[in-house]
Amino acid sequence: MNSTKNNCILIVGGIDDNASEIDAFNPKNRKWSLFYNIAKKIREFSCVLIEHKLYLFGGMFEKQVTDSVWLLDLNSKELKPLGSMQKARANSKAVVCNKRIFVIGGVDSQAQPLYTMEEYDIEEDTWKTPVNINFKRYNYAVAVIESKIYIIGGDDEGGASKDVNVYCTVSNKFDELNAMTVNRCDLTAVPLEDCIYAIGGWNDSLVLDAVEKYNPYKKIWENVEKLAKPRKSPCAVIYNNRIICFGNKKSHGIFEFSSSNNEWSKIGKMNNERRRYMAFVWENSLNSDGKQDQTANCDMESSSKASSDHNQVIKEKLKNSNLDRDQTLSQNENLKSKRVKTTHNVVDADSGASCSFDKENLNTDLSNQNPQSNPIGSNRNLEEKTVIILGGFETGDNSMDTYNPISKKIYLKFLDLPKIFNGFASVVYNKKLLIFGGFNSATDQCLDLVTKQLKTNTPSLLEARKFTRVAVVDNHVYVLGGLDSEERELLTVERWSSKETNWKYVRPMISKRIHSAVVVCGDKIYVIGGTIPSEEYEFTNVVEMYCTTTDRWTRLNEMSFCRSSISGVALNNKIYAIGGHTEVGISELVEIFDPVSGTWTQGKELSKEAKVRCAVAYNDKIICFGNQSSLEYDPNRNNYEELNDLKISRVNCNAILVDFDLSNYI
Fold first, then answer.
1. In angstroms, rounded to a whole number, what is the distance separating the alpha carbons of residues 254 and 244?
2. Is the separation of the CB atoms in 164 and 151 below 8 Å?
3. Among 65, 109, 285, 567, who pairs with 578 as Cys (CB 3.0-4.6 Å)?
4. In this predicted model, which residue has the larger pLDDT, 480 or 396?
5. Mean per-residue pLDDT, 163-182
6. How far apart are CA 536 and CA 396, in angstroms?
7. How many domains does the chain have?
């Protein structure tokens, strides 16, 4: 958490007499205050904090283990019941991951350990049937990184354990990881800078001061600086990129750890004795006098006022224009439908965008070049290349067309596919067209462009997807986001190359979106705009960048206008976001992003008749394909030239530039 303005840390629960009290600690002035007293006198519960809502699960109520769920609104300080779990449990662990709450383990009414986990869907307000956690331990620590829950240490009924397990919320599978260096239970664990820190605990004979961290990518544990004092049942949070570790009244010191200097320093002391409690950083914070500070509200997903003003301008402009049939269709589909029907806006590998290249010509691919010495999207030679055009809604046609960007000649029906593909993503890799997901394909498909043989692609993706996006960097294929088989938005990203036997997960995206543009520049993948999950599926101007070499996502400056189904291309060290949809119809907007300065500027708008569905970059120009027409944009002259019309009207089709003349195989 980088923003620390007036934030406070809430200390909640435990197994002691004061467990019903919620204390607030201000890290700035290091003062304590009583924030709230839970009148129900619930103890030994687990809880999670989501924005200003505190969810309480189970615990001991009137000396009975309960399955009750309570919701405490921290703003109004109103506590109300929220149904019940499938199983009564106390001293469980609760975490939040991918808009779901997982309640893990605990003990039953007979004080016997529970080896089950329950899952609560926040949006659907439903509980899933408890599942076995596949190992017998309790009094462990839990931590979440990305879509995975790490269960660390604990008591395995034979004593303290150093075992570590991980549960993937995407694949719904448990795996065993490398063990810690020290046996311990009653410890705490927190994620910091992509590592997990296991802190303190008990090893059956000694209270521990040992601290070690786990790197999920290197898959190793290593010792770091010890606690200043041994701690059993500590609790820790991440505040201002540091670990703050709390003890209890007997071990009352509060210590702060900085990974930059690998040191612990004392910053305060506890005011109440607590064991097995929880701590949360609350952004709707308290002032130094313990009163709530309403000015500290933080919404990281909201757009800036300037962007909102820009969006209003374009809305008014588009409202005053005459909406033709296709714009009306766009309104109906985008605003009224529960699921917007749009496919992948693919662009070419030669421009560094979301299509691939021939493996034999890897030396000419820009993803392996220095952007300073070889401009993004620049073509150094003009060997024969071909644009593949396929798919789309409302075409009623299963043909795959080819377009020669030199002769500007369209070859019809390179191939009649056995089915009409829509809602898919596609890429050319080693002279094979890989088709991922979609509405009418239960499996991923692979089309050999030389033999024209279509077969199931192996290996298959780890998750079935539709409305996904695809990119190729350094001979690796990346499949990003989309919707799963239950229409849930996905953050996950999968990676594969011809040298690997299976797909692997890499770091997931920051925010859930569908219908975004995906553009590759060098070793970086840009995800631009799209539709964000909401009741009406609102459009967004959010831009995120994934660096394939560091496996990190970064939030960048937003576009000026919220748009979805954008065509994205990279050309001459710039990224072009072309067309797409706004809330009132088809957009003629073109915005240009400079990766060096990180700024967006306005480009020359398309004509209202263009209705660009996809685009590729070739020979320092951008070729835009519409419903039935095509345009060529020359950045040097800043004008559009009309090209030959497509013979088949395609709505939301795919266009891919490949590094060989496909007409030889027609």
1. 7
2. yes
3. 567
4. 480
5. 92
6. 28
7. 2
In a domain, 520, yes or no: yes
Coil, strand, or helix at residue 449? coil
CATH no. for residue 562?
Answer: 2.120.10.80
Closest to 515 in 3D by CA, of 546, 484, 492, 483? 483
- The arithmetic mean of pLDDT across residues 107-132, rounded, is 89
Q: 343 or 168: which carries more pLDDT confidence?
A: 168
The helix or strand, by DSSP H or E, that contains position 642, with its residue range, turns out to be strand 639-642
Question: pLDDT tens for residues 417-471?
Answer: 766 666 788 888 888 888 887 765 557 888 888 888 888 888 888 888 888 899 9
User: 287-295 long-range CB contacts below 8 Å, 24 or more apart?
Assistant: 287/6, 288/26, 288/28, 288/29, 288/31, 289/33, 290/24, 290/33, 290/34, 290/35, 292/75, 293/6, 295/6
Distances (CA, A) of 239 to 22, 245, 256, 448: 19, 10, 9, 53
Half-sphere exposure of 536 (CA within 13 A, CB side): 8
pLDDT above 70 as % of the chain: 76
Comparing 81-95, 128-142, 207-221, 247-261, the range with the smallest average pLDDT is 247-261
In degrees and rounded to multiples of 5, residue 364 shows phi and psi of: -95, 0
Q: Which of 216-225, 475-484, 593-602, 637-646 has the lowest mean pLDDT?
A: 637-646
Count the alpha carbons within 13 Å of 330 in the hemisphere toward its beta carbon.
23
At 181, list the tokens: 């260096």
CA distances to 103, 471, 493, 555 from 546, rounded to whole Å, are 31, 11, 10, 9
Length of the chain: 666
Domain termination site, one of 185, 203, 226 = 226
Cα gap 552→554, rounded to integer Å: 7
Give the tens place of pLDDT for each residue, 179-196: 999 999 999 999 998 899
Q: What is the torsion angle, in degrees rounded to the nearest 10, for the CA atoms of residue 227, residue 232, residue 238 and residue 239?
A: -70
Contact, 496 vs 477, CB < 8 A?
yes
- Contact between 603 and 615 under an 8 Å Cβ cutoff? The reply is no
**CA pair distance 612, 346, nearest whole angstrom:** 12
Q: How far apart are CA 142 and CA 156, in angstroms?
A: 15
The verdict on residue 588 lying in a domain is: yes
Residues 217 and 326 in one domain: no
226, 245, 276: which is the final residue of a domain?
Answer: 226
Q: Is 140:93 a contact under the CB 8 Å cutoff?
A: yes
Q: Of the segments 402-416, 450-464, 646-660, which one has the largest average pLDDT value?
A: 450-464
Quote the CA–CA distance of 62 and 116 in Å, as a whole number. Answer: 24
Q: How many Å apart are CA 540 and CA 364, to the nearest integer?
A: 34
Q: Which domain holds residue 110?
A: 12-226
Output the six-digit token pair for 418. 């056995």
> Which residue, chain included where needed, has tokens 């004593």?
159
Classify residue 174 as exposed, middle or buried by CB count within 10 Å of its CB (0-12, 13-18, 19+): middle
